[in-house]
Specification:
This protein has 215 residues and is α/β, with parallel strands linked by helices. The protein has eight helices and seven strands. Strands 1, 2, 3, 4, 5, 6 and 7 form a seven-stranded mixed β-sheet that branches. Helix 4 crosses helix 8. The longest helix has 28 residues. It is globular.
Length: 215
Amino acid sequence: MKKFFITAFFALISVVLFAQTKLYVNPKFPEIAKNQKIIAILPFKVSINLRPNQMKKITPEQLKDMQINEGKGIQSALFSWFMKRSQQGRLSVQVQQPVVTNVELKKAGIDESNIDSYTPADIAKLLKVDAVIMGTLETTKPMSDGVSVAVGVLFGVWGATNRATMNLFIYNSGDNMVLLNYNKGVAGSLGSSTQDMVNILMRKASRRIAYVSNK
């Protein structure tokens, strides 16, 4: 048990030592947020940077599927992150259910292959929301349920450390204004799930997102 706590301590230190954060907050964000009622979180675009010897064990199609599933995992984990704050009475907006967001995107023919052809305002209008959260994630080890299991079986990376960089944007509907841009990279032990990783990556951002009260 003592060995476990020592290992956990140094894993935490490794996360802190390699952390890099860039945060932009639009000065108008707090005022704009007062008039917003509902926001949506899109699936993230994910790049899984496997090592060359790992890439030999899967096809490009399998990697693409992993990245799509991981992107939806980030979307789901962020939704849970916001819902926790909603339950605490600290969230000023509603968050559209990911299943609703994804169905509406699918009905409109929008997916990871063509979403760059649409502005955030286009998507916000389609989803009937006041703002959209979207972004990218680069990681060396997927952590979504099922995806991480598959990678663990293929490559034997159970419990391996991970590097992850999230680049998150919140866009205002109508004018495509960037309300917040949060870029954070960490390296080390990021827990055992996508939710653990999101919790670590969002720790600092929570103090600057106008929808979240810090009471």
